[in-house]
Each structure stands twice: as structure tokens, then as C-alpha cells.
Amino acid sequence: MTCNRRHPSPTGPRAPARLVVFDFDGTLSWLRHGWPRIMTAVMRAHLPARAGEDEAASDALLAGIVLGMNGHPTILQMTRFAALVQERGGPVLAPEALRAEYQAHLDTA
How far apart are CA 83 and CA 80, in angstroms? Predict the structure, then answer.
């Protein structure tokens, strides 16, 4: 598909665009900078501790969800995390409530 539409440039002529990036989920956006740290903190607050598990091990577990599912909708990351909490004998968590908590922290960051 070729676009023949021209927009005047205040700096003069430019070469035609060869690449366009669409960031639908915000992973590249500076406005969302730091989102993995925020999501991990929300999850860590709800993660049931396991005997003998150190912080590095739980961080690696959470990174598997946060970074391993990067690009997936946030609700799917929270659904996976809620399942993990139940696998560890924790309470039933509503993925939408977790997503809303994460979004609230993200909005204030």
C-alpha cells in the first residue's frame, strides 16, 4: 500500500518514510517508563511467601510473568498472577482488581 499524501514540512523536504512503529500496548512509550517495576511491586504485595524462598527467587518468578508476557494485555498478566497466588495456597484474587490497582499506581507515577 502506497500513501501519496504530502504534508508540508517546516524544515524542508524529507526522505520518504521507510518504517513506522505502532506501540499499541505502551511498552515503548516514555509515558509508561518504569511499568515493569510498578507491576512487580503490585504483584509482590500479594504474593504468598514460601518457606526457604529468597527475594531473588520470587523476583525471578514475577519477572517471568511481567517480562515473559510483555506485549500481552495487562489483564492476561494479572490472570496468570492470580492463578500463581492460588497455586501457592493464597486467596482468590480478581484479575480485574489487580489490573485496576496496577493502573492506579501507574497513573500516579
Answer: 5
pTM: 0.73
Give me the sign of the Cα torsion angle 16, 22, 26, 28.
Answer: negative
Average pLDDT of every residue of the chain: 88
Largest CA distance in the chain: 65
Q: Quick one: 68 exposed, middle or buried, by C-beta within 10 A (0-12, 13-18, 19+)? A: exposed
**Full domain range(s) for residue 40:** 30-108
48 within some domain: yes
Query: How many domains is the chain partitioned into structurally?
Result: 1
Separation CA 24–CA 107 (nearest Å): 17
The reported pLDDT for the residue numbered 19 is: 84
